[in-house]
């Protein structure tokens, strides 16, 4: 057989003119990507679909119970219908005062929760690492933790010079203890084998803290942040109802005082939606910080 370098021009022309076998046509690239995306997100889509069906069934039950004024242990005679609440929502969307209530509550949540996270997470890490600090702080925290937020309202009014500062303080108290306890719990579950291995490799205390303890405790930290956000909203609404002059909690209590039943339901739904959105933000941040937990 002659080498390619010795091929004549006639041989090259014959090779160029030879028919090329057609390649088998594969599936379109878009269909392949769509199929792969569906397989990866099948569980999420199923959960979302079930959630939508659940909400629709809830709205249907609410509509039937309030339209026919059902009395069955629980009285629905004065509960507003979904249509009445929607009409109240459309009016509120054109009312700057309602938007101001929402923005003020969100601002209070932001400052109170941020302070709770800034204080609670480092304190929980230090308590979990150093026994002396744990023995010194834990008894005080356990005594104060069961006190409900509503019981802090008179004390907060006496401690802080303005109403705004007292409400932020109550929000801070509500979020602080779940964050602290969950962070401390995460530190107690760190595998000591990993700590000894880091020490054998020559890691110093700061490196062990940063590379071993903190990543191992992160799932529990974000659990505490999520729980703390929910408790922060509960504490905030209680404080706004009692001592506030603005905020979504005050809006709901004022609607009750004025016997405006659709506005009461609107305030409750707004609180639920805002709380859900805040928790989703924390879960999304946890997904970004802990990509290894994705399945």
Describe the structure.
- This protein is mainly alpha-helical and 295 residues long.
- It has two domains: 28-79, no CATH class; 80-293, MetI-like fold, CATH 1.10.3720.10.
- It is built from twelve helices and two strands.
- It has helices at residues 9-17, 29-40, 42-67, 82-93, 96-129, 131-144, 152-159, 163-188, 192-200, 205-243, 248-257, 261-289; strands at residues 71-72, 74-75.
- A two-stranded antiparallel sheet has the order 1-2.
- α5 runs antiparallel to α10 (205-243), α5 crosses α11 and α7 (152-159) crosses α8.
- The longest helix has 39 residues, at 205-243.
- The chain is globular.
- The model has no long low-confidence stretch (mean pLDDT 86).
- It is found in: Cell membrane.
- Residues 102-282 form the ABC transmembrane type-1 domain.
Quick overview of this protein structure:
By secondary structure, the chain is mainly alpha-helical.
- Overall radius of gyration: 30 Å
* CATH class value of the largest domain: Mainly Alpha
Instruction: Report the helical percentage.
Output: over 70%
- Could you give me the name of the CATH homologous superfamily of the largest domain? MetI-like
Distance between the termini: 56 Å
CATH fold title of the largest domain = MetI-like fold
Q: Quick one: overall form?
A: globular
What structural class is derived from the secondary structure elements?
A: mainly alpha
Unreliable spans are: none
Using the 3D structure, state the CATH architecture of the largest domain: Orthogonal Bundle
Strand order in the largest sheet: 1-2
